[in-house]
Amino acid sequence: MAVTKRTRRPNTIKAYVEDGESKYPLEALDFDTAIATFLHNCRVKNLSEYSVKYYDNSLKELVKFLNIVGVERPIDVTEANFKECILAKKESGVKDSTVNTNLKGWRTFFRYLYEAGYLSANPAEHVTLIKAERRIIPAFSKEQIKKLLSTPDLTTFTGYRDYVLLLTLLETGIRISEVERLKITDIIWKERIIKIFGKGRKERYVPFQVTLEKELKKYISVRGPLEHDYLFVNIDNTPMKKRTMQENIQKIGIAANIKGVRVSPHTFRHTFAKFYIMNGGDAFSLQKILGHTTVEMVQTYVSLFGTDIAKQHRKFSPLERLNDIE
Q1: H or E element, residue 59
Q2: Is 318 inside a domain boundary?
Q3: How far apart are CA 326 and CA 318, in angstroms?
Q4: Are β-strands 187-188 and 203-207 bridged in parallel, bridged antiparallel, or unpaired?
Q5: Running DSSP on this structure, what letter comes out for residue 233?
Q6: Which domain holds residue 302?
Q7: Using one digit for the tens of pLDDT, what is the confidence trace for 198-243?
Q8: What confidence category does residue 155 fall into, taking pLDDT thresholds of 50, 70 and 90?
């Protein structure tokens, strides 16, 4: 006997019909109101401002695409309209992962409107993430890392600061937004760990070793006592913003003449993961260090870098060992 799938109805009734006339809340009739209500709910739930900004930007994209297909009210959005927006985003030339990043926000938005009773149906209920093509993750080679580390002028404050910044990214694999928030008081010297506040206000501890400890202590001594505890500071002693860090790292890459890979904080994160796995690290501890909520991403690192393919190929090459085959 076939089992009929049941869809749970919203427990709050806000959309109804009275005397033959539809009575809907403003959230069902106006995107600006619906988005404002949703973002307010995000703040009530104490989501980070980073998350709120992500939803805000994502939903602006959604409204733009819906207007193109002639839909101007949340209540009028159908599953077909929703899929048209996904296709339009994909055809705009962005990566599949970017499409899915937006799609996650869009689905969360409509699920909220439905569960809060503003819509009688959820147009995104049966829409899944698109199948993203798997790409090789770019990372630095050892030679490129050495070039990058030898580029900053260590006789200047800004040069030495940027050098220590590169070391921190390479040693810990933390996100640039996490570096921006990093304070001296987050460093637990005795245990050689750094307290990191990651995405979604989640706290984790990331270890570091003797080399970085030495350079961090030297940098903090040069930095000197200030009115705030932020670790990385500008020449005027104000906390560095992540945009400045990104620009400085990009300039270092140009000066080091690095080719074939983007010189960015995120590439340092990939590079950390690559060498962590190649040096024998395990997926579980890598997941904890990087702050990933699932093991899916780190499994990609393991499959790509779990063995040194070039080294293994040199060892077992059929052509090179042709004379050895009996």
Answers
A1: helix 49-68
A2: no
A3: 12
A4: unpaired
A5: B
A6: 142-312
A7: 776 678 999 999 999 999 999 999 999 999 999 999 999 999 999 9
A8: very high
